[in-house]
Amino acid sequence: MSTDKKLSGKTALITGASKGLGKAMALAFADAGAQLALVSRDMKLLAEVQAACRGRGAQAEVYQVDVTSEAQVEQLKRDVLARFGKLTILVNNAGINFRKPVTEFSLAEWHQILDTNLTSVFLLCRAFVPHLEGGCGRIINLSSMMAHVSIAHRVPYSASKAGIMGLTKSLALEVAAKGITVNAISPGPCGTEINAPILNNPELLAKFTAQLPVGRFGKPEEVAALAVFLASGDSGFITGTDVVIDGGWIAQ
Description:
Elements: E1 11-15, H1 20-31, E2 35-40, H2 43-55, E3 60-64, H3 70-84, E4 89-92, H4 107-128, E5 138-142, H5 155-175, E6 181-187, H6 196-199, H7 202-210, H8 220-231, E7 242-245
Parallel strand pairs: 1-2, 1-4, 2-3, 4-5, 5-6, 6-7
Helix pairs in contact: 1-2, 1-8, 3-4, 4-5
């Protein structure tokens, strides 16, 4: 899927942009011609992504924000609109995962995962929906194949990602008349930092890879290319749905 300059003249905000899928999407969006508002709590890594995007010819600004904070998200809205004057594309990508039995989770850990993965999507959508460009606005929410199927020790994570699916469908209906689309992407196992506990464990890695019909983990760039398509004008008739990109895992 070639990115070309599908996003020329458009402004995109990406949360969790300092690493993993967020970084890959930032670079792909830069190649596609978008202006970028890059959001993360890690300014050191975010600055590196900013430099890489600028090296590709994109305008890119960085914002250190805790996306679970209502006050910080509202300030982000003011800062982004003051800098760019508009927003065309909102990518809700920030996410975390802890892996352990449900009986070992504290309530604080439950809230941390739900707030980061799901509440942040609500906060960002509520803040920016009124300011998205009508007729070409795009919202892309990063869900997971764990919203469709699951495995043990993923209770809060699967719950949060399933919640994103419901939010995506309802919001898509709410803003369709404004020409704004809302879709989710559900990646399977990808070679990113969030999967380090698997990637760094040869036994676990072999077990997961054996369950993937394509025989390998996904590449962040493959998810990024899909995001560029969903953010572009080519996807205007796609809304309220989820695109699974999982190497065939849930087809089994």
